[in-house]
Amino acid sequence: MRKIIIAIDGYSSCGKSTLAKALAKKLSYVFIDSGAMYRAITLYFLREHIDWNNEEKVLEALDNIKLHFYYNDEEGTSDMYLNDENVELLIRDMLVSENVSEVAAIKAVREFAVAQQQLMGKKKGIVMDGRDIGTTVFPYAQLKIFVTADNGIRVERRFKELYAKNPNITIEEVKNNLEMRDYIDSNREFSPLRKAEDAVILDNSNLTREEQLAIALSWAKEKKLQVHEQD
Ligand code: DC
User: Fold this and answer.
1) Does residue 177's CB lie within 6 angstroms of at least one atom of ligand 1?
2) I need a surface site. Which of 34, 81, 95, 229 has the fewest CB within 10 A?
3) What confidence score (pLDDT) does residue 3 get?
């Protein structure tokens, strides 16, 4: 059966990646966490002290950035590599989270990342999660899912995740970071976070991972069938 493209968008910490990963596994599709690319670029800018308000410096820096996803056998997913260094853990750091939305709002950065994301979709059979996947990266994706969840639940989920790595983190810090990122992501000039008109909403506030996966899987199967019948 012909493979399709599945775009999963939504606010920060809605569980998009968890769902996308599980869906890709079930369908034997490739999973791409597009946010990891913006995080890796941010890590590079921070390390190299790049002034990202200076367009020339940004373009120069982007010339020196090579991003790749390599499969991690143990995890069963792909890790983000920045210039051949595995940065999968480093890019989840709070300092990166605090700056990534600003970096991701820069036009040149978006063009750089989107071009690579579109190449990854050439073969279809991909589940990509992010903020603009259904609107900008793959406007022709056969299935677009917009994930939402109650704000309090999102903060709690993110806090638990970060607390496991850093017990000094406070719930206030997590809440402020989420609010700030949602604001910047939704209000930026270039491809802001929006629900694509033809996206289906998945509110997972009161759903288990298994329930969400079952819903998404049924949508994917329906779309695959439609594509098959059109062939
Ligand atoms: O999904 P995430 O939290 O790892 O994403 C990190 C940041 O990257 C997020 O604040 C917004 C940005 N992002 C984006 O602008 N477009 C995407 N397709 C994915 C992420």
Assistant:
1) no
2) 229
3) 92
